[in-house]
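thought: fold this chain, then report.
action: predict
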Amino acid sequence: MSLELTPVHRNLHTKVTFLGLEFEDLILVLALAALMNLLAHFVSGNAHVFGIPLNVFMEFVVPALAVPFLILF
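observation:
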């Protein structure tokens, strides 16, 4: 009874990415979003950035802007 061997192609040098980010980068974006969410609760309700309320800007736009910078660098 002989053992049949089949070749397995593995490439250990490829980086696993999701939406262009590695796992550690996604954790950083989620942590930044959580931090901005906490800080947004302490911001006054009448402050605006580019016509967007500052708390919404901090919660959603800041982490969304962090993604292209992380992909770039």
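thought: worth noting. The radius of gyration is 21 Å.
final: tokens above.
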